């Protein structure tokens, strides 16, 4: 350094090196959820056709993001406890349906355990056959490429095969434990 001092090394700097595993795991789960709940997220329905039954199935997710433009990749997170994910994983393609603010009922239905996830829902097939739920504002048909275990969830990376706008509308938003729309 020009003033004759020495540069701090990564181990000298406050931050990551100061944290112990015990301090990281000591975070209260309810507080963690409450704080992260202040980050508004969109809500998607991940759908596919269960190859074992040839019936549509799906799950709701609010952890969804674009990953890469080249190649076109997206990611979403699924809880290890999901009984629907093994059925979707076995499908040749899955479809990310971006839900509209009028589809909270779809989100709740796909988030429920058991029952026929598509009971009363209308849908069309994307080019690869994955269900595009009527009323979704857009859809992205994908093929699963990778899964990464991350705590109590799996991060799924999927390659985009086809996509399109479906209906006009505004997205369903999840914020502070509740659902709503976007007033722009």
UniProtKB/TrEMBL annotation:
A Pfam family hit: Flavin_Reduct
Kinase among keywords: no
SMART domains per record: Flavin_Reduct
Recorded name of the encoding gene: hsaB_2
EC number: 1.5.1.36
InterPro entries in UniProt: Flavin_Rdtase-like_dom, NADH-dep_flavin_reductase, Split_barrel_FMN-bd
Keyword Oxidoreductase attached: yes
Annotated segments matching region Disordered: 1-21
Keywords from the named record: Monooxygenase, Oxidoreductase
Top enzyme class: oxidoreductase
GO molecular function: flavin reductase (NADH) activity; FMN binding; monooxygenase activity; riboflavin reductase (NADPH) activity
Regions of compositional bias (Low complexity) in chain numbering: 1-13
Domain Flavin reductase like, chain residue ranges per copy: 36-181
Protein name (database record): Flavin-dependent monooxygenase, reductase subunit HsaB
Originating species: Actinomadura rubteroloni
Upper lineage: Bacteria, Bacillati, Actinomycetota, Actinomycetes, Streptosporangiales
Assigned protein family: Belongs to the non-flavoprotein flavin reductase family.
